[in-house]
Write a structure and sequence with these properties.
The chain has 14 helices and 16 strands. The chain is an alpha/beta fold. The structure holds 1,4-dihydronicotinamide adenine dinucleotide and 2-oxoglutaric acid.
């Protein structure tokens, strides 16, 4: 029986893919084999020694101690692109909310509820206070052309915006999806200088923390509208406050408000709703669960943020999974250890990512003595060993 701990509410259409005869799923469960979560912050959590994998039903992994997981041989997955359409639609809503005074206007019109027959005339009289501008013909800078950024760029372009994009690390598969009407800009200064609207669609990492700061605000046009559906920590709050007070930023739309931004003028705050649609929640849960099952049952890895991609068809024998430092002479030491137990390697995959390597080894024997685990773990550089018996 595999034990799965859920740290957030996970869409049932995903969870039901775990066959109940083989999996136990609960929000509190001792010695879990794997964790599935959304935005729960794991940084202060003790990682149980039983834990083999963490699956983020979503894109951002800044709530997971990825480095610590890697050291402990815990594979961390996310679900690239699975909620991108949900976020794209909210970013488009954010573009419109920042352009038309829909929120204030809708709140004001409610105050007329007891005015009876005077309501139509009051509306016509008062609506001048809630005017706006159209997005057509305006320039939108998309910072980060990943799953969400590309969808936002393409959609905004079809709404008549002049769309420019910036992403020094853009993947080929994303480039192929980007409309040829979107202009690629090489530097951050030239893209910010042209934009009437800026949307942030990059991950929060130690490198991007406080990415939008005084220096970047100074590169922007006066009255720019800034949309942040990525993470609150990307924007330096005190610099934002100054930029709003100086009229540099005319609207800040954020899916990640906090005490400071909620108390700032010109801020449109949304309670992290980017991926809160049935479609996105199901897509993320289904992808997370399928990836997790494939890893737990067969050791295959797809869409991990810390381990290499690895897939090997199984034979009729047992499977050995080994994580080790990416240093010379590991494969030969591992092979010798297996040979010393009389095990015959039938098939083997060795994949590398940065400073780690991951091996899937199928042997001809269907049952292996579990003491092989400690033998393999005693090899210097090996940090994870698992045996999947047939
Ligand atoms: N509001 C919400 O509910 C959601 C928010 N997000 C946030 O949006 C972020 C992006 O999501 P996806 O597009 O799915 O991820 P992704 O990984 O497909 O795209 C991120 C892109 O940002 C680029 N990038 C990284 N650093 C950059 C930099 N310094 N300058 C310019 N580009 C940079 C990468 O090359 C990549 O193309 C996530 O990391 C997450 O924080 C994601 C999903 C839902
Ligand atoms: O699961 C959620 O609602 C959060 C989605 C998100 O922020 C992400 O996927 O990075």
């Amino acid at each position: 029986m595999f034990k799965i701990q859920t740290l957030n509410k996970i869409d049932p259409d995903g969870l039901r893919l775990f066959p109940l005869n083989n999996y136990e799923i609960a929000s509190e469960i001792p010695n879990p084999d794997a964790i599935v979560l959304r935005s729960f912050k794991m940084h202060d959590m003790e990682l149980p020694s039983s834990l083999k994998a963490v699956a983020r039903a979503g894109a951002g992994v800044n709530n997971i101690p990825v480095e610590k997981c890697t050291e402990k041989g815990i594979v961390v997955f996310n679900t690239p692109g699975a909620n991108a359409n949900g976020v794209k639609e909210l970013v488009i809503a954010g573009l419109l909310l920042s352009s038309r005074d829909i929120i204030d206007g809708a709140a004001w019109v409610k105050t007329l509820a007891d005015k009876g027959d005077e309501i139509p005339a009051s509306i016509e009289q008062g609506k001048k206070n809630f005017g706006g501008q159209e997005i057509k013909g305006k320039t939108l800078a998309v910072i980060g052309l990943g799953a969400i950024g590309v969808l936002v760029a393409n959609a905004a372009q079809t709404l008549g915006m002049n769309v420019i994009g910036y992403d020094p690390y853009m993947k080929v598969q994303q480039a192929l999806k980007l409309s040829n009407q979107v202009t690629w800009v090489e530097g951050i200064q030239p893209i910010l200088a042209q934009a009437d609207y800026v949307t942030l669609n990059i991950p929060l990492t130690p490198e991007t923390e406080g990415y939008i700061n005084k220096e970047k605000f100074n590169m922007m046009k006066d009255g720019v509208r800034l949309l942040n559906f990525a993470r609150g920590g990307l924007v330096n709050r005190s610099d934002l406050k100054e930029a709003i007070a100086a009229g540099k930023v005319s609207r800040y739309v954020t899916d990640f408000p906090n005490e400071e931004t909620l108390n700032m003028d010109k801020v449109i705050a949304i309670p992290h709703l980017g991926a809160s649609t049935k479609e996105s929640e199901t897509n993320c849960a289904v992808m997370a669960v399928n990836q997790l099952k494939d890893f737990i049952e067969d050791g295959n890895i797809k869409n991990s943020v810390n381990f290499p991609e690895a897939f090997m068809e199984r034979n009729d024998g047992a499977r050995i999974l080994i994580g080790n430092k990416n240093i010379p002479n590991m494969v030969s030491q591992i092979s010798s250890a297996l040979a010393s137990e009389g095990l015959n390697i039938d098939n083997m995959l060795n994949k590398k990512r940065d400073n780690i390597a991951y091996n899937i080894i199928d042997v001809t024997r269907s049952k292996i003595d579990e003491q092989l685990i400690s033998k393999l773990k005693s090899i210097e550089g090996v940090f994870m060993v698992r045996i999947i018996q047939k």
